[in-house]
Amino acid sequence: MGEVKVVGFDLDYTLVPYTVELQSLIYNLARDILTSAYGFPSDFKACTFDPQFAIRGLSVDARFGVLIKLNHLQRVGHRYAYKGKRPITGTEMEEFYGTSRHLPYNDLIQLRALNDMFSLAEACLIADAMEIFEHRKKHKGELYSPSALIDDIQAAVREKPDWFKTKKPFRMWNIADNRPSITPVGQLSKGQVYVGGSCAALERATGWKGRDVLFIGDNLRADLVDARRWHGWKTACIINELDREIDVQDSPWFHELHFLRSTLRQILGDLQLAMHHQSASRGTMSSAIKSTTPTGSTDDEDGATVQDIAGATGPDTSAIAETPITRGYSAEDAELLHSLETELQRVNVELSSLFNRQFGSIFRTDGHPSLFAFAVRRYADLYLSEVCDLMYYNPNHRFYPQHALHMAHDPVYSDGFD
Q: 1, 21, 244, 307: which sits with the fewest CB atoms below 10 Å from its CB?
């Protein structure tokens, strides 16, 4: 912190906190604009903001009108995709995203990220609108375009200015006339108020460069990503939900479920190793092969169950035994693995629901860091629940970041080799 010469702040949800009533106000104003100016059906007026529905860090896939949560591998969470207020079916998931649920880069960059607290109202607007238009399509045969619908909703919700990429100059605010000056200014004077401007204009006027600046904001895309990538500023992300996430993780029920999950993972890993050694039909596997995913799992959260992979609809062990994951196991072994994996999935669902019933934690997706968490780790030097948290630290405090994630073959006591 001692290297920082100047600290800058975003305003909304950074310096100024808001209650849930603001989200309701945003929702209601946008809803009324959509019905009066964009031709949305009158029954849309009956919709109200649901503060328990969405979380920050979701993405909107306008092609299908779906709200999704991605992990850092660009895969759609298999429980975290909603069309309207309902989770999409397995058939829809495969139709939209294939069996891998992976979004290639060209599709990823077309998604619309919901990365700040204002976007919670936007997510509810999209879900409620999709619910109504889907109902009218089903019962009245009225066709609609999900992409055009979402364009209308986003047009009704104010966008943030692209402050970090433009070269717009500052203008001095004339307090007596209550208006900005006609001519732009090239220097900034202490005690004056300025409006407009851009990051480029600020750097020209002050000489502040790169790591001289710590900028604190709540919107990853608008406040932090461009500040880091384009200008090399130090950044801190305000995540208002952090306190609640920590409270959930500290709760007795979370600890009980987490212990149960860890135990099931360990049992699965030990069982598979024992079955591997006992099953001559599986041949010899090199002990040098290491998994980059949690013990006993695929790249889903503890894997899809054997039944999911097989596409089976019941506990038919003959169907389970034919799947690639259980080939070489006896029917009894396959059934045991299936039972444990099914229980593990149930525990995972319950753990996720402690944070949010629809979308889980903002930091995790299917056992991996969410795309939001990955972006925070990549673009924010610090993250905190509110600006006041900095009051507990000396201005010259040195923050030591958590070391990079270990590889699977590293000793458990290793702190890396670099």
A: 21
